[in-house]
Amino acid sequence: MYIISKEFHFSASHILNGLKDDHPCKRLHGHNYVVSFSFKSETLNEVGFVIDYRELDPIKKYLDNIFDHRHLNDVMPELNPTAENIAKYLFDIFKKQFPLLFRVEVKETPKTRAIYEA
Length: 118
Description:
By secondary structure, this protein is an alpha+beta fold. The chain has helices at residues 57-67, 72-75, 83-94; strands at 2-14, 29-41, 70-71, 101-109, 112-117. The protein has a single domain, classed as 6-pyruvoyl tetrahydropterin synthase/QueD (Tetrahydropterin Synthase, Chain A).
């Protein structure tokens, strides 16, 4: 099995709902997010790629236009914008366009990550 991934970055704010009043994530705050999209295939294309990284430009454009320097509660009003929900949300948006997509990882800090894997 061949697996590749590509990393994207965006900055955004959010407020996490449902937390105790003294929880710091209940207040407005932001992160410099790092999101990795992973793709797998048992075969390679005629060039020797799982997928050409340049084909992933729509992901970068989407994140730049919809997520970067935005308030995630407004971007995803139907979800609490946890890293876990962001990972699944992005997976669902791009799975149809990229059938080899199997995993989205969202890092809010260098020490924390959430993964959605099909």
